[in-house]
Amino acid sequence: MDMGDGALAFWLLLPTAVLLLAIIVYPVCRLIYTSFLSLSLTSGLPASFAGLQNYRDMFADPVFWSSFWNTVIITVVTVPGALVVGMALALIANIPFRQRWAFRLALLVPWALPLAFCGLIFAWFFQSDYGIVNDVLRRLGLPTVIWFNSYAWATVAICLTTIWKTSSFMALIILAGLQTIPRSLYEAAEIDGAGRVRQFFEITLPLLRPAIAVALIFRTITALQTFDIPYTMTRGGPGTSTVTLAMYIRQNTVDFLDLGYGSALAVAMFALSMIVTVFYLRMIRRGA
User: Fold this and answer.
1) How does the average pLDDT of the chain come out, rounded?
2) Using CA atoms, how far apart are residues 61 and 54, in angstroms rounded to an integer?
3) Which of 52, 112, 250, 283 has CA atoms 20 to 30 A from the CA of 198?
4) Exposed, middle or buried by CB within 10 Å (0-12, 13-18, 19+), for 171?
5) How far apart, in Å, do the first and last CA atoms of the chain sit?
6) Residue 151 pLDDT more than 70?
7) Which residue in 202, 248, 254, 259 sits closest to 69, CA to CA?
8) Bond preceding residue 238 cis, omega within 30 of 0
């Protein structure tokens, strides 16, 4: 049967819309609804409407604020760090040399490793007595560090591990963007007398803006949801000083079985992710 363009578009998009409603919209709405309930599986009481009480408890909870700022610090440090390292790796991988395929293949290794596995590996690297990092410091005649005995050094270890793990992801996206830049632009710039640095800032960076924006959006959202690396490296220690928001959500929902309060924490993380995404999208629109 013949149908108009509008009707055809409707029937083609309908399966996708139904799928999005089933796997995204409904769970998010259910999460928000649960965040207004007093629902603890350990209390033995039925669920009851609590209004904004879970959110009041959240804003008065010092562990929430500690986990919130830990998450923000990890995001602020690791996202630019991974971008800088990823940019350098992508530029090297884009240079035409004989073993370039091996270097590009090596970029996949950190990205392909599971997050928890990376956390366990680097927990051993930063181990105070027999870890590689302190062994190198001893050989250089520098004082060793008890990495996981203080908040500052534990955060440094977590951030360095996260940058190592995520920089390859940034490099792959930026490398894909570099492949789309015509070589003729660089040839014309060389004829005009532009050096490598000027070419980078006037050709490479402007044309890489869409790829960088995509990389930043994905990396920032995953940074806000950081769980595996700090959990496997420090378990939130010392004490609860390195607990992230995702770890605190897991603790309340899985360990304490407080689904109402855990849902309120999850809503806060979701709102933070949406704010960051909208911020990036506005930056992209202004730069377009």
Assistant:
1) 89
2) 10
3) 283
4) buried
5) 41
6) yes
7) 248
8) yes
